[in-house]
TrEMBL record:
Family the entry assigns: Belongs to the glycosyl hydrolase 3 family.
Gene3D superfamilies in the cross-refs: Galactose-binding domain-like, Glycoside hydrolase family 3 C-terminal domain, Glycoside hydrolase, family 3, N-terminal domain, Immunoglobulins
Signal sequence bounds: none
UniProt protein name: Beta-glucosidase
Native source organism of the sequence: Acholeplasma oculi
UniProt keyword list: Hydrolase
């Protein structure tokens, strides 16, 4: 795909259309089809009625730092479905919902952090409407939406994990009266599926949150332009109480990880198979596959498989081959199934076949012995028979291949790190695979003595006048440069500034590096970190591309595709001068109610680690990087700053840290963010055992570690404190994020005082400085500062397992002909809007098919190449003009925003002559806007204090006759809202009103006059009560 990268034109401070469209391609692969009875899907040449308000309010992502990406427009599901050429949508039901949604606008909360509700109020639809629609349509579609996010977990109630009574009744009534019913879940997390037991549901789709183009991706799957191929990265269970972590979730103060290594399918396949509704790794396609293991071989420690896959159905699709291990129980006890490797095929046409080859390192299948049954604090393979199972989910496998070890084998000797210091019990299988319990080994190593013993001598200090550029040019060594830094400068390096620091891209999360004047003079650049990972969050209002959420990425089981998506995100980061994205989020999905599960990948550490490694590798291919977060055991949002996770050393190593290890060893990840919480009494931001001993020393990490924003730190057995950066620095966590001013120590941290009193050594400061400075040398920020040609660091990728799927092919249509005119297409683009063409009269392309909508305004061109399906949506007509940028938002001074909507029914009168942008063709003074030219615009900056429905009241006039129709359109941040058409008034003033739905914040409201000869004498804005 490298040849495509060369064609991308990055515009400074602008999002990439290519990234937007590739995100749709990825979203299509992550949609999971769980039921398809009677072949209800795909829908081709059928009449459908769509129920549920989420058809108008598609959730592109969850909330909080992982979801707040500003986009120009998020297509909704119903509009994309209505544009589909071969699906006929019931207009009566559509109009019912459209009107109701206008009167019941989307509730985005009160504008405060984590105030968004997890569901939206649903319309109580009269049964007669459903009965009437059922007579006219073949299929009823019900779409349900949920969101969740940072700082607030899902809850065990209606409107979150459970359906509301209104939602349940809607599904009941639709399924009872329609011949076929499909339920779509636009969610970021698991939800209760008990409605599947009560009602006749033919199709069930987990659409997840697909990013800015997710609704279009969903429609493409439903319409059969592509087959779904996503698989579940977690287990969906029948009852929450059956989850092994349920009784130890959501508590304040302390959470005991009693389930130990038996998380998700590891628990259910070992102890409680009947609790599962849909198993890990499961997902349907529109075809059927034959999976036949063919060869098995062991060479030294390398286990090799070849697996034959054939499409024995009728549609082109992809399949995911999964290899599971059943290890002998031995003395340690093991889950019955552990995922060892997986790979997705290319798209296979009917009767097409392929062979996947796998190579797995036996040592990667070892268990951690924290007890000393075989060898304490080591990874071991216990003697006995190791069986392998191959299939397309944890439940649908064939036993194939075995290894018999005659003796116990120690694969890696480690040392005790971060063992718990309070007694508790963990589960373990007995001989009949029933749950039994054993005591957890406790800490035996003195934490403070370990640090004291391992503290190194400081580097030699010097008075040399060295610039960091001198180090880059190899005139001086890094050690010499660090030796030239004062204690103040070393400490200032450990402080990041933010949020929305003016020293870096506006609205981003942090500036770090040369944040003080002294460091800047010494050539230390200021690097920029932005929230992610589902796109660049910029609170300044800058637009960016909204990508699919983490759980959807994992559902693709397509590592090469994830890598390529994030290489494109890396290109967009370069356009915005962002060096580091704060993601991937890779905490284990321990419990279904964790509010941030949407950001994370899986309940399985291998899927988590491999997906994260692919993501980071893609970013680093572009020359930027990601931040592995949150290290670690950050598995709930309730009391997230303080809740102590009490976890065995084995569970840490095999479950909660394993994904981080895989990403570091495989992708050479360069940045990590610690979590807010303590683990076994030590806040992770200051945990020497993990940050220094494990991550740096054992895993060989060569990068920076940063705290989460405003995290606490502590000494051994001490309280958490945001000022205790001494403990952070000693642990080799390098950067405290964030404070207002590094040079003046605005956080009043204790680093300098600790140095003077002797509890913080110079060598600890120098170690963190070396980590930070070596990192900065590789950043685009360093090259920008010193006007160097940017050379990205080349890092060798070493996958945790190997397959023969080493490349990715994404076809594209170079050009097509419409109405006799040749249109060129850039790589990756999957949507083209041609506003100068009113209708499609003819279309030609070198493609497999062209589907034209009956309104001649929309066509879908389909091209299949090397098993990959490329779709190009072509839209024509006046309506596409709504997406044009009318205002350069990046040039607007939002400080001028006029507050409106603080209280309902209180009209605010705008001063007509205080616009922020005015096009030619308009004369304006304090009394009147006079429109003299068609398509002219005028814009105002408003701060909408509350979300809701806003009324725009105009006093207008025109010299035209009453027969003249004079429309003008209203835009919010360049996104079309509505059109108001007035009639000529022969100079008389008259009132006219429009309404829009607005979320809180500062917005640019633009009036575009589609005709001239309009006068506006008064413009008032008022929030509807």
């Amino acid at each position: 795909m490298s040849q495509y990268m060369k064609t991308i034109e990055k515009k400074s401070m602008s999002p990439l259309d290519e990234l937007r469209d590739l995100s749709k391609y990825v979203a299509e692969e992550g949609i999971v089809l769980l039921e398809n009875k009677k072949n209800v899907l795909p829908i081709i040449n059928k009449h459908v009625a769509v129920f549920g308000r989420i058809q108008f309010n598609y959730y592109k992502s969850g909330t909080g730092s992982g979801g707040l990406v500003n986009v120009r427009n998020v297509p909704n599901f119903i509009d994309t479905l209505r544009q589909s050429p071969n699906i006929f949508v019931d207009n009566t039901v559509y109009e019912l919902y459209k009107e109701w949604v206008m009167d019941h606008p989307f509730d985005a909360g009160n504008g405060q952090w984590a105030s968004e509700p997890w569901h939206q109020k649903e319309m109580e639809l009269d049964l007669s409407h459903i009965k009437d629609a059922a007579k006219m349509n073949d299929i009823g579609i019900v779409i349900i939406g949920r969101t969740a996010g940072e700082d607030k977990d899902n809850y065990r109630g209606e409107g979150s994990y459970y359906l509301t009574q209104t939602e349940d009744e809607l599904i009941k009534n639709v399924s009872e009266h329609f011949k076929k019913t499909i339920v779509i879940l636009n969610v970021g997390n698991a939800v209760d599926l008990s409605f599947m037991d009560k009602y006749s549901i033919d199709g069930l789709i987990f659409a997840w949150h697909g990013g800015g183009m997710g609704a279009q991706a969903l429609t493409d799957i439903i319409a059969g332009f592509k087959s779904p191929s996503g698989k579940l990265p977690m287990t969906l269970i029948k009852d929450l109480k059956d989850d092994p972590s349920d009784k130890n979730f959501g508590h304040r103060g302390e959470v005991i990880y009693e389930e130990d290594i038996y998380v998700g399918y590891r628990y259910f396949e070992t102890f409680h198979k009947d609790a599962v509704r849909y198993p890990f790794g499961y997902g349907l396609t529109y075809t059927k596959f034959l999976i036949e293991p063919k060869t098995f071989d062991v060479v030294d420690t390398q286990i090799k498989f070849s697996v034959y896959v054939k499409n024995i159905g009728l549609e082109l699709s992809k399949e995911v081959v999964q290899i599971y291990l059943e290890a002998p129980q031995g003395l340690l006890g093991k889950p019955k199934r552990v995922l060892a490797a997986y790979e997705k095929t290319k798209g296979l046409a009917p009767n097409e076949e392929t062979t996947l080859e796998f190579e797995i390192d036996l040592f990667n299948l070892a268990s951690y012995d924290d007890f000393g049954h075989i060898y304490k604090s080591s990874y071991v393979l216990e003697k006995g028979q190791y069986n392998f199972y191959i299939g397309n989910s944890v439940r649908h496998t064939k036993k194939f291949g075995k290894i018999i070890l005659k003796d116990d084998l120690i694969t890696l000797k480690s040392e005790e790190l971060n063992a718990p210091n309070q007694p508790f019990k963990r589960i373990k299988p007995d001989q009949s695979f029933n749950v039994s319990y054993e005591d957890v080994p406790l800490r035996t190593v003195n934490y403070n003595e370990r640090i004291k013993k391992e503290t190194k001598k400081p580097l030699q200090t010097n008075d040399l006048n060295i610039n960091l550029l001198d180090v880059y040019q190899k005139k001086y060594s890094m050690d010499q440069f660090i030796g030239s830094l004062s204690v103040d400068e070393l400490i200032e390096l450990t402080r990041g500034e933010g949020m929305s620091s003016p020293k870096v891209t506006a609205g981003t999360a942090a500036a770090f590096g040369g944040v003080s004047s002294k460091l800047l003079k010494k050539g230390v650049p200021i690097a920029c970190a932005a929230d992610g990972p589902s796109g660049i969050r910029m609170d300044s209002g800058f637009y960016a591309s909204s990508l699919p959420i983490g759980i959807l990425l994992a559902s693709t089981f397509n590592l090469k595709l994830v890598e390529h998506l994030y290489e494109l995100l890396g290109q967009e980061m370069l356009a915005y001068n962002v060096d580091v994205i704060l993601g991937p989020g890779m905490n284990i999905i321990r419990h279904p109610l964790n509010g941030r599960n949407f950001e994370y990948f899986s309940e399985d550490p291998l899927v988590t680690g491999m997906t994260a490694a692919s993501l980071v590798h893609g970013l680093q291919n572009a020359g930027v990087t990601g931040t592995l977060k949150h290290l670690f055991a950050n598995n709930q949002e309730t009391d997230r700053f303080n809740v102590n996770a009490v976890v065995s050393e084995r569970a840490q190593r095999e479950i909660y840290l394993k994904g981080f290890e895989i990403a570091i060893r495989s992708a050479k990840a360069k940045a990590i963010m610690t979590s807010y919480n303590p683990v076994n009494g030590l806040w992770t931001a200051s945990n020497y055992d993990i940050n220094k001993k494990l991550v740096h020393d054992e895993w060989g990490f060569k990068g920076i570690i940063v705290t989460d924003w405003w995290a606490k730190m502590n000494d051994w057995e001490g309280p958490g404190d945001v000022k205790n950066t001494k403990a952070m620095i000693i642990s080799q966590n390098d950067l405290y994020m964030v404070i207002t001013d590094a040079e003046s120590n605005s956080n009043n941290d204790n680093a300098k005082a600790s140095y003077h009193e002797g509890s913080l050594s110079l060598s600890h400061l120098q170690l963190t400085a070396k980590n930070i400075l070596k990192f900065l040398l590789t950043t685009p920020a360093f090259h920008r500062m010193h006007q160097l040609t940017f050379k990205k660091e080349v890092l060798r990728y070493q996958p945790f397992f190997r397959t023969n799927q080493t490349s990715l092919h994404i076809p594209y249509l170079k050009q097509f002909e419409i109405n006799g005119e040749q249109i060129k297409v850039k790589p990756y683009l999957q949507q083209i809007e041609l506003q100068d063409i009113e209708s499609i009269e003819s279309m030609k392309a070198k493609s497999d098919s062209i589907e034209l909508h009956p309104d001649f305004k929309h066509a879908v061109i389909k091209k299949i190449e090397k098993g990959e399906t490329y779709l190009l949506h072509v839209l024509v007509g006046e309506k596409t003009d709504h997406s044009n940028d009318l205002v350069d938002l990046n040039s607007i001074d939002f400080k001028m925003a006029l507050p409106v909507g603080e209280s309902a029914w209180n009209p605010i009168i705008l001063k007509l002559n205080e616009s922020v942008q005015l096009s030619e063709g308009i004369d304006v003074n304090s009394d009147r806007i006079q429109v003299n030219q068609q398509n002219s615009t005028i814009s105002y900056v408003l701060e909408f204090v509350n979300s809701g429905k806003y009324l725009l009241d105009f006093m207008v006039s025109s010299e035209q006759s009453p027969l003249a129709q004079l429309p003008f359109s209203i835009y919010l941040n360049n996104t079309y809202q509505t059109t108001l058409t007035i009639n000529g008034s022969e100079g008389h003033k008259k009132s006219s009103r429009a309404s829009i739905l607005v979320e809180p914040g500062k917005h640019v409201l633009t009036l575009k006059f589609n005709r001239s000869s309009i006068n506006i004498h008064e413009f008032k804005v008022m929030r509807h009560g």
